[in-house]
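Sample intake sheet
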Amino acid sequence: MLPAGAIAMQVGFNAAAARQSAYEEGLSRRALESIATERRTIDELREMLRVLATTPALQQIAAGDCRDWLSEISTRYPYIASISVSTDDGVLLCSVPAAAPNLRLPDSDLRRRARARDAFTMGYTEHGTLSGIPVLGALEPIRDGSRRVGFVGASIPTTQLAALLERSRTSNNALRNARAAIVDGRGRVIAESTPAEGAPPLPDSQLIVRRFGGEPAFLEVPGGDAVVVPLYGPDLYAVMAWTPDQPVWSRVGAIVFSVAAPLLIWLLAIGAGWFAVEVFVARPLSSLESAARGFARGEDVGDPPALLSAPSEIRSLRRTLAAMAKTLRGRELRLVEALAEERALLREVHHRVKNNLQMVASLLNIQARAARDESEAWGLARAHDRVQLLAVAHQRIYSSGELRHVRVDDIAAEVARQLLQSRGQAAKEINLVMDLGSSRAGVDRAVPLSFLIGEGISSALDALSDAGPVSLNLMLRQDEDGTTRFAIDADIDAERARAAGSGARLIDAFARQLGATIGRDTARPYMLWAIVPPEPKEAD
């Protein structure tokens, strides 16, 4: 019953749609036939303006010759109310009828649209500057090469357009009971034919504007139908309203009659199908879903009453889900325990590595203090700083509790403070200014990135030691795409700085490991900037 009803209903709808389509096609054809004369007039006007605009001598004619020339054109086209040539800023060069010399035309909506579009444009003017009557104006740009230098314009009285509409309506028997009008891009009626007896009203202007487009659009109006067709889009459209060929109740009755019987068959089939699905499928499945939610919360749920009378397949599915939920709960518990144990072991590894590194750093510090040679003491102190830097990185890794990403800005701040403290009196007049934004990196990249930052700070401290009061600036940022940027600089004259330290090779080595770009200034040994690309994404 259901397929048969659906097929019969589809056939009925197709028949109704075909009748409506044929009716709309007839309206569209009649509307297009009715505006053929108006379209030819507008095409003739546009072609005339285009020829004038492309005439090479147009910009070199004297004012008197220009008027004579335009007078000949207005004589050839008697339906034109005015014709003019103006500059791009609206100064009138010549016109028919004649106007005062150097008259500046008002900056109308038509002229603004013509400048913005830079092409042929039409529009309605309630009071023409030259003709003094309501007109349909048209503007065509004049070009000197690729540059626009002015406009040539013409206008047609709206009374002339109304006469064309009336002649088209009365000369066609199919249009005698119609009402025709020409509207502009705002939906304003420019010209309208004399309303025939019993003709329906035109649609509202806002409704007309909403149906503007490149194809005919159909509207319902009180007592009839209307169609909107493009006359010269998007500037002009034609609107026609007809009394329908047959009453509305007749068309609606035909549609209802064609689909009533199939609809009744379909409703009966839907009712039977709904009853079967509700009783034998929907209710058991809803009970099964409630039982599954209980299993997800870790509850032991018995068979709901609806499942006792459900089909054997659904009851079997319920038992299978219960077994799966029990198995999954056991596996989940084991995974949670294993993950917690792995995190604890990993943190313990980082903690022990940190302790061992701090022990090595302490030994290096003791050895540096006991060294008799200044260069040996300096080298041991730098080795102490690097081991201490690695210890700080591991401390931050295990203390953060993160297994994949760590805060590089926290590591950079701690490294900078410890390096400054390790220099003692040599760096007592150095003021460390840190501008650190939130920055993260994977555990594998955090250590070389920390070394890169630490070596840059260490080299800057070497160059600024005993240079007097100075501010050492450290900047760290991370872009949205994961690119990390940091820079080290100081507000000090280059003459007061020492030569760069020995960490340049280490900086280059860590930069190669990270794929980073390094920048230096040989005249300022304390300055360093780096751009570290984002981490490569892991393959799925």
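Comment: The mean pLDDT is 77. The longest strand covers residues 147-157.
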